[in-house]
Specification:
about 210 residues, about 25% strand, 7 helices, alpha/beta, 3-stranded antiparallel sheet, globular
Protein backbone atom coordinates (compact mmCIF):
# COMPACT_ATOMS: atom_id res chain seq x y z
CA UNK A 1 0.00 0.00 0.00
CA UNK A 2 1.17 3.52 -0.71
CA UNK A 3 1.89 6.20 1.89
CA UNK A 4 0.14 9.48 1.10
CA UNK A 5 0.61 12.80 2.90
CA UNK A 6 -2.30 15.22 2.66
CA UNK A 7 -2.16 18.88 3.69
CA UNK A 8 -3.10 22.40 2.71
CA UNK A 9 -1.71 25.89 3.22
CA UNK A 10 -2.61 29.51 2.60
CA UNK A 11 -1.52 33.12 2.98
CA UNK A 12 1.62 33.85 4.98
CA UNK A 13 1.94 30.21 5.97
CA UNK A 14 3.07 29.42 2.41
CA UNK A 15 6.33 31.25 3.05
CA UNK A 16 6.73 31.11 6.83
CA UNK A 17 5.65 27.69 8.10
CA UNK A 18 4.93 25.37 5.16
CA UNK A 19 8.63 24.91 4.21
CA UNK A 20 9.48 23.97 7.81
CA UNK A 21 6.55 21.57 8.04
CA UNK A 22 7.55 19.85 4.79
CA UNK A 23 11.18 19.61 5.89
CA UNK A 24 10.14 17.87 9.10
CA UNK A 25 7.79 15.48 7.26
CA UNK A 26 10.53 14.33 4.89
CA UNK A 27 12.93 13.99 7.84
CA UNK A 28 10.74 11.55 9.79
CA UNK A 29 12.46 8.26 10.55
CA UNK A 30 11.74 5.40 8.12
CA UNK A 31 9.22 7.52 6.26
CA UNK A 32 9.31 7.84 2.49
CA UNK A 33 5.93 9.03 1.21
CA UNK A 34 4.90 8.03 -2.26
CA UNK A 35 3.30 11.41 -2.80
CA UNK A 36 2.60 14.56 -0.77
CA UNK A 37 -0.70 16.08 -1.81
CA UNK A 38 -0.75 19.83 -1.28
CA UNK A 39 -4.27 21.16 -1.78
CA UNK A 40 -4.33 24.86 -2.65
CA UNK A 41 -6.84 27.46 -3.67
CA UNK A 42 -5.93 29.08 -6.98
CA UNK A 43 -4.90 32.38 -5.37
CA UNK A 44 -2.58 30.57 -2.96
CA UNK A 45 -1.01 28.59 -5.79
CA UNK A 46 -0.05 31.86 -7.47
CA UNK A 47 1.66 32.91 -4.24
CA UNK A 48 3.55 29.62 -3.73
CA UNK A 49 7.33 29.60 -4.19
CA UNK A 50 7.65 27.13 -7.06
CA UNK A 51 11.31 26.45 -6.20
CA UNK A 52 9.99 24.41 -3.29
CA UNK A 53 8.59 21.93 -5.82
CA UNK A 54 12.11 21.36 -7.14
CA UNK A 55 13.45 20.64 -3.65
CA UNK A 56 10.56 18.33 -2.80
CA UNK A 57 9.82 16.43 -5.99
CA UNK A 58 7.19 14.23 -4.36
CA UNK A 59 4.92 17.21 -3.67
CA UNK A 60 1.90 17.17 -5.98
CA UNK A 61 -0.19 20.32 -6.18
CA UNK A 62 -3.97 19.97 -6.38
CA UNK A 63 -5.79 23.25 -7.15
CA UNK A 64 -9.25 23.02 -5.63
CA UNK A 65 -12.16 25.09 -4.38
CA UNK A 66 -11.16 27.08 -1.32
CA UNK A 67 -12.63 25.01 1.50
CA UNK A 68 -10.16 26.60 3.94
CA UNK A 69 -8.74 24.05 6.41
CA UNK A 70 -11.05 21.32 5.08
CA UNK A 71 -8.94 21.10 1.91
CA UNK A 72 -6.41 18.84 3.66
CA UNK A 73 -9.12 16.17 4.02
CA UNK A 74 -10.00 16.02 0.31
CA UNK A 75 -7.77 12.97 -0.10
CA UNK A 76 -10.24 11.07 2.10
CA UNK A 77 -12.96 11.79 -0.46
CA UNK A 78 -10.83 10.72 -3.43
CA UNK A 79 -11.45 7.07 -4.30
CA UNK A 80 -7.97 6.91 -5.88
CA UNK A 81 -6.52 6.69 -2.36
CA UNK A 82 -8.99 4.26 -0.75
CA UNK A 83 -6.37 1.48 -0.48
CA UNK A 84 -3.57 3.73 0.80
CA UNK A 85 -2.40 4.93 4.19
CA UNK A 86 -3.07 8.65 4.43
CA UNK A 87 -1.13 10.87 6.81
CA UNK A 88 -3.10 14.07 7.46
CA UNK A 89 -0.67 16.90 8.24
CA UNK A 90 -0.82 20.55 9.19
CA UNK A 91 1.25 23.30 7.58
CA UNK A 92 2.15 25.03 10.86
CA UNK A 93 3.63 22.04 12.67
CA UNK A 94 7.19 20.75 12.92
CA UNK A 95 6.92 16.99 13.23
CA UNK A 96 9.22 15.04 15.54
CA UNK A 97 11.44 12.45 13.89
CA UNK A 98 9.60 9.57 15.60
CA UNK A 99 6.09 10.70 14.60
CA UNK A 100 5.69 8.23 11.73
CA UNK A 101 7.27 5.30 13.58
CA UNK A 102 5.03 5.82 16.60
CA UNK A 103 1.84 6.07 14.58
CA UNK A 104 2.81 3.17 12.30
CA UNK A 105 3.56 0.93 15.28
CA UNK A 106 0.23 1.84 16.89
CA UNK A 107 -1.49 0.92 13.63
CA UNK A 108 0.43 -2.33 13.14
CA UNK A 109 -0.17 -3.48 16.72
CA UNK A 110 -3.80 -2.44 16.92
CA UNK A 111 -6.59 -4.98 16.87
CA UNK A 112 -9.14 -2.28 16.09
CA UNK A 113 -10.64 -2.68 12.65
CA UNK A 114 -12.08 0.82 12.42
CA UNK A 115 -9.66 3.32 13.93
CA UNK A 116 -7.45 6.27 13.14
CA UNK A 117 -4.20 7.09 14.93
CA UNK A 118 -3.52 10.64 16.04
CA UNK A 119 -0.36 12.29 17.36
CA UNK A 120 -2.42 14.86 19.25
CA UNK A 121 -5.85 14.52 20.87
CA UNK A 122 -7.56 17.07 23.09
CA UNK A 123 -10.76 17.15 25.12
CA UNK A 124 -13.62 19.59 25.52
CA UNK A 125 -14.28 21.08 28.91
CA UNK A 126 -17.85 21.06 30.18
CA UNK A 127 -18.73 24.36 28.48
CA UNK A 128 -17.91 22.99 24.98
CA UNK A 129 -16.42 26.33 23.98
CA UNK A 130 -12.72 25.67 24.43
CA UNK A 131 -10.35 22.72 24.45
CA UNK A 132 -7.88 21.53 27.06
CA UNK A 133 -4.98 19.10 26.58
CA UNK A 134 -5.82 15.50 27.44
CA UNK A 135 -3.12 13.32 25.98
CA UNK A 136 -3.43 10.37 28.39
CA UNK A 137 -6.63 10.72 30.42
CA UNK A 138 -9.12 8.29 28.91
CA UNK A 139 -11.80 9.45 31.35
CA UNK A 140 -12.63 12.08 28.73
CA UNK A 141 -13.11 9.50 25.99
CA UNK A 142 -16.57 10.68 24.95
CA UNK A 143 -15.31 14.23 24.54
CA UNK A 144 -12.08 13.54 22.69
CA UNK A 145 -11.52 15.04 19.31
CA UNK A 146 -8.73 14.32 16.90
CA UNK A 147 -6.40 16.88 15.44
CA UNK A 148 -5.00 17.27 11.95
CA UNK A 149 -1.65 17.89 13.63
CA UNK A 150 -0.70 14.40 12.48
CA UNK A 151 -3.16 11.58 11.86
CA UNK A 152 -2.57 8.18 10.29
CA UNK A 153 -5.73 7.04 8.49
CA UNK A 154 -5.54 3.36 7.45
CA UNK A 155 -6.83 2.06 4.12
CA UNK A 156 -10.62 1.89 3.79
CA UNK A 157 -11.14 3.76 7.07
CA UNK A 158 -12.95 7.11 7.27
CA UNK A 159 -13.36 7.51 3.53
CA UNK A 160 -15.68 10.47 3.11
CA UNK A 161 -18.07 11.80 0.56
CA UNK A 162 -17.18 15.20 -0.88
CA UNK A 163 -20.53 16.51 0.37
CA UNK A 164 -19.52 15.77 3.99
CA UNK A 165 -16.51 18.07 3.69
CA UNK A 166 -18.57 20.78 2.04
CA UNK A 167 -21.15 20.56 4.84
CA UNK A 168 -18.33 20.94 7.35
CA UNK A 169 -16.94 23.93 5.50
CA UNK A 170 -20.40 25.54 5.52
CA UNK A 171 -20.47 25.20 9.30
CA UNK A 172 -17.00 26.73 9.51
CA UNK A 173 -18.12 29.69 7.42
CA UNK A 174 -21.16 30.14 9.67
CA UNK A 175 -18.93 30.42 12.71
CA UNK A 176 -19.54 26.86 13.83
CA UNK A 177 -17.11 24.18 14.94
CA UNK A 178 -13.69 23.91 13.33
CA UNK A 179 -12.58 21.12 11.01
CA UNK A 180 -11.01 18.92 13.70
CA UNK A 181 -14.16 18.94 15.80
CA UNK A 182 -16.40 18.35 12.79
CA UNK A 183 -14.39 15.32 11.65
CA UNK A 184 -14.30 14.01 15.22
CA UNK A 185 -18.08 14.16 15.33
CA UNK A 186 -18.08 12.19 12.09
CA UNK A 187 -15.87 9.54 13.72
CA UNK A 188 -18.12 9.34 16.76
CA UNK A 189 -21.25 8.99 14.63
CA UNK A 190 -19.70 6.27 12.48
CA UNK A 191 -18.01 4.27 15.22
CA UNK A 192 -14.44 5.19 14.28
CA UNK A 193 -12.09 5.04 17.27
CA UNK A 194 -9.45 7.78 17.76
CA UNK A 195 -6.28 6.15 19.13
CA UNK A 196 -4.00 8.59 20.87
CA UNK A 197 -0.22 8.81 20.81
CA UNK A 198 1.96 11.20 22.77
CA UNK A 199 2.24 14.75 21.50
CA UNK A 200 4.80 14.31 18.74
CA UNK A 201 5.13 17.72 17.18
CA UNK A 202 5.79 21.40 17.80
CA UNK A 203 3.39 24.12 16.67
CA UNK A 204 5.09 26.95 14.79
CA UNK A 205 4.11 30.61 14.78
CA UNK A 206 4.01 32.72 11.61
CA UNK A 207 7.70 33.53 11.93
CA UNK A 208 8.61 29.87 12.01
CA UNK A 209 9.38 29.96 15.75
CA UNK A 210 8.57 27.05 18.05
Amino acid sequence: MRKIVSLTSYGERLEKTLPLALKSIFAMTEFSPDVVLLYLAEADYERLDKNMLIEYSKVSIRIVDDLKSFKKYLSLADREFDDDIIFIADDDVEYGKDTWLTLRNLFNNSRLGNAIFSSCIAAFDSTYNRSVPSFKNRAYKNFLFWSGFGVLVPPRVMRLEDSVLRDGYALLEDGGLNDDVFLSAYCLKNGIECVNAAQLQTVLDFDGNK
